[in-house]
Structure formats: C-alpha cells, structure tokens
TrEMBL record:
<protein>
    <recommendedName>
        <fullName>RNA transcription, translation and transport factor protein</fullName>
    </recommendedName>
</protein>
<dbReference type="Pfam" id="PF10036">
    <property type="entry name" value="RLL"/>
</dbReference>
<dbReference type="InterPro" id="IPR019265">
    <property type="entry name" value="RTRAF"/>
</dbReference>
<comment type="similarity">
    <text>Belongs to the RTRAF family.</text>
</comment>
C-alpha cells in the first residue's frame, strides 16, 4: 500500500513493511522522524525513540499533534500515509534542484497521444493507494464513511464540479451574492497549511450549499404532493372521491 512512497524515501524494506506490526511500526516512526521529517531537535526525540516504553503511544500522539496530522492514533493506515506524504514533500523541498529536471523512465519516448490521454482511464479502483486517497479526502471534507470507496468519491464529486472552469464561468455570470468571511467559519481541524485550510473551508461551504439546494428541492416535491392529495376530484356518478 505504501511501497511507492517508501521506495521514494529509500526505506530499507518498502515491499514488506507492515504497519500493523507494533514493533515495526514504532521503529518506522522513529526512522521517519530521524531521517526525513526531523520536526524535533535531536535532544527532544528521546520519548519517541523509546519504543519499548508503555508511554510510547502518548509520545506518538503528541508527535502527531505537533506535526499537525489530521488523523487519530487509531487510524493507523491513514496516519502512515499522511506522514509519508509529509516526508516526501520535505524530501523534495530539501532536494528541489535534484528532482526539478528529472524525468520518469520512458518519459522521453512518450508521444503526444499519451500526453493527451484521459488520466483516469487506467485507474484501478481496487488499488490500496486509491482507497487510502479517497479515505483521506473523505476525512478532509468530513464525509461519512462507506464500505464502497466509489460511493464516497461520488459524494465528494459535486463539490469539485463547482471548481471546474465551466462552473466558475457560469458563477461569474450569475448575480453577485454576499461576501463570505472565511475566518468566521470554524474548519474543525488543521492541515498545517494555511492555503489548504482555506481551500478546505471553501469546499465545505460549497458542500453545505449543495445539501441546502437538495433539501429545497425535496421540500418543493413534498409541497407538490400534498397539494394533489389535499385537492382530490369528486366523481358523483361513481360515488367515489378521488381521481
């Protein structure tokens, strides 16, 4: 599930890593902090390095808060994926010049057709990385979890449709509404990135607007049905009331 990110970070056993193994997981967290993330000063890593301590889970939970990880300690797979993403981002930042001009294998032989190909055509919905990404997105937008990952993706898709070029152009033609002060809307979590926090606030507000529009349509349908039921036609010849 994490093989590509682990390989990118030169982890010694990317194919065999098992985050459910407690000892391996704790050693992995220490390696990740010591070698890649380096959020703490060396002298402040003692509690995290003491993997045999009964208090290690508390130290790890504090570490998650310090690096602004949005997941809970019980959500181990999501936490590992998020920490790996943070480590990859930091690794790239430290070696930007090294990766700036690098090309993936075979990129030089790719033709224009491949560049214009639909990026989702070969998407494997059963891929663990895809599932982890959908789960992270659902947590970010605070969407209720579902056993079917495609259902969660469909729930979040209307929000992102509002950000397409056509939707933006249509919105610009519509009547201007009241300005929204984002600082007055509490997000409820912190991604550690101010820009990402603001984007999450906007996405949540758009999602709420979609729900309100749906509720309005439901109310209109109920009113229409009630109007039909409350005004039946009477046929005296049949001695019945109704249509």
């Amino acid at each position: 599930m994490f093989r590509r990110k682990l390989s990118a970070l030169d982890y010694h056993n990317p194919a065999g890593f098992n985050c459910r193994d407690e000892t391996e997981f704790r050693n992995f967290i220490v390696w990740l902090e010591d070698q890649k993330i380096r959020h703490y000063k060396i002298e402040d890593r003692g509690n995290l390095r003491n993997i045999h301590s009964d208090d290690w889970p508390k130290s790890f939970e504090k570490y998650m808060k310090d690096v602004n990880c949005p997941f809970k300690i019980q959500e181990r797979q999501e936490t590992v994926d998020w920490l790996l993403g943070l480590a990859v981002r930091l690794e790239y930042g430290d070696n930007a010049d090294k990766y700036k001009d690098s090309n993936p294998d075979g990129a030089k032989n790719a033709d224009n057709t491949a560049k214009n190909a639909e990026p989702l055509i070969n998407l494997d919905v059963n891929n663990p990385d895809f599932k982890a990404g959908v789960m992270a997105l659902a947590n970010l937008l605070q969407i209720q979890r579902h056993d079917d990952y495609l259902v969660m993706l469909k729930v979040s898709s209307p929000t992102f449709e509002r950000l397409t070029q056509d939707a933006i152009a249509k919105a610009n033609q519509s009547k201007e509404g009241l300005p929204v002060a984002l600082e007055k809307h509490i997000l409820g979590f912190d991604t550690g990135d101010a820009v990402l926090n603001e984007a999450a606030q906007i996405l949540r507000l758009l999602h709420i607007e979609e729900l309100r529009e749906l509720q309005t349509k439901i109310n209109e349908a109920i009113v229409a049905v009630q109007a039909i039921i409350a005004d039946p036609k009477t046929d005296h010849r049949l001695g019945k009331v109704g249509r």
